[in-house]
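Go through the following before class.
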Amino acid sequence: MNAVIKAYDVRGVVGEQIDAAFVTDVGAAFARLMREEGATRVVIGHDMRESSPELSRAFAAGVQAQGLDVVHIGLASTDQLYFASGKLGCPGAMFTASHNPARYNGIKLCRANALPVGQDTGLARIAAEVTTGVPAYEGAAGTESATDLLDDYAVFLRELVNLDQIRPLKIAVDAGNGMGGHTVPAVLGALGAATIVPLYFELDGSFPNHEANPLDPKNLVDLQALVRESGADIGLAFDGDADRCFVVDERGEPVSPSAITALVAERELGKEPGATVIHNLITSRAVPELVEKLGGKPVRTRVGHSFIKQQMAATGAVFGGEHSAHYYFRDFWGADSGMLAALHVLAALGEGTQTVSELMAAYDVYAASGEINSTVADAAERTEAVLAAFADRTASVDRLDGVTVDLIGGGWFNLRASNTEPLLRLNVEAATVDDVNGLVTEILSIVRA
């Protein structure tokens, strides 16, 4: 059960770890929890995977059996489901395995107004009830209805970011055969100044062209080529459920999600000076430095959307960003929306005359390694070995999430053990590429010894 009901969501191989009967039980357990919290209905969306319609219907059956009504919105991105949860004021379930391969599927759950459901806020209880048997409900079954909220979602986002006055832009977009092919035409297609150059917009859960995971550089290659060949001003790449957006500049070079976080933070602080901005602990230090410089309050958190969302709610933060290209907005119920982040980038680009590379230079201050994974037998032992090797160069050690080591003279690194795999994850940031490469080589020689 722990292999499927994870820290943030439900995810596994269809037919082996997840099937209709299992999903029906998850729906029933979720509905019981939500009913106790006062909910009367649940909104359900799904991505383009072959198994998603059947599984979403099975989940709905479990919800209805517990007396709650179901509202189906059909094909949706994850942030479109969050929009529906906010607009309808009810809990939600999104059927997707995000960027995972085709054989996977899963469920992202939220409370009303897109509030998170994580391991400590409901998933552990759901897992326990599915294991022992979900108690039957003696009342009447819930009803079922359907509504299409795609246009409402698109209008809502465009009202949050004014793009009326931007210059004409050619925008190359790689949807990766995922839900970006569904949402991009609705949101960006209505912009008179935007010319969309589409790539892999056909909804296909077998992912025939490449994995829908833009965090892996190999999955950006086609978009990079398209930007260069088409002379696009900017490239956007979405993951499978289109809740994350990656940016490629006019040269075809990837833009760091940390730099995007800094840019959007500056725009949001321009609207609300002194506001709080959330960033996770492996986001570039350029983000908190810029927020402080602008008079805002940076708040650092662990990696993971449930932690970011909790801090968004607790602090009233206007915005939050992660290194993985998840971007969270108070104006979007504290939930993440890659599309909304993309609109901010397009607005910043279109309001001026700079290229993307020129625009982002101010925010891309340091060199970074990106996340490097190593398979290890004992993550804790390897971490302590690294700490010992760097003891005489360490300015401070923080254990908020793994270990974050600030080095004397500048630079830092973080080592985090995976919650689900025998992996140790390394992130390094320093002043120059050479500094980063040197630190990576030294640390990996210890980790992989």
Notes: Residues 20-36 form the longest helix (17 residues). The radius of gyration is 22 Å. Residues 278 and 299 are 5 Å apart (CA to CA). The chain has four domains: 10-149, 169-253, 257-360, 367-447.
